[in-house]
Amino acid sequence: MPPPTLFQALGGLDGVRRLAHAWHERVLADEVVSHAFSHGFHPDHTARLAAYWSEAWGGPALYTALGGSETAVVRMHSGNGAHEEMDRRAIACFAQALDDAGITKPALREALLAYFSWSTTQRMSAYPASPDDVPAGLQVARWGWDGLQP
Questions:
Q1: DSSP assignment letter at 35
Q2: What pTM was estimated for this model as a whole?
Q3: Which keywords does the record carry (predicted)?
Q4: In sequence order, what E strands does the chain have?
C-alpha cells in the first residue's frame, strides 16, 4: 500500500527539494521553456517551488506559511497568451527531472506527472488573456494518488 500522501512517498521535503532542483535545472537548459525565466526569477525559486509542491502533494502548508498564495502563482503564469509548445516542453522537462531525482516507482511517477500536466495545461494556463482575470482567493490545489482532491 502506498504512503498516504505523495509528499511522504517522495521522502518528505528533502525529496521534493531534489525534484524541484532537478526540474529547475532542466527548464533553464531548455531553449524554449527557459524563456519564462529570461526576465529573472526569485533567488529562492527552487525552495519556494518545493514549498508549493509540498503543500499541493499533501505535505505541510509551507508555501502559504511563507505568504504565498495560489492566486499569486496563477497570476504569475497568466496573461501570456497560449503557449502549448512551452507547456509540452515543460512537461517533458518534468518527466526528465523525475529521472534526475531518482524517482523510479511507477505509481508515484504517474501521479506526479499527472499533477504537473494538469497544473501546466489547466491551472496555470486558464487565464491566457490577462492576470487580472484570475479570481482572488484561489486555494492551492491538492493532488493525491487519484488526482485532484476535494
A1: G
A2: 0.91
A3: Heme, Iron, Metal-binding, Transport
A4: 143-144, 147-148
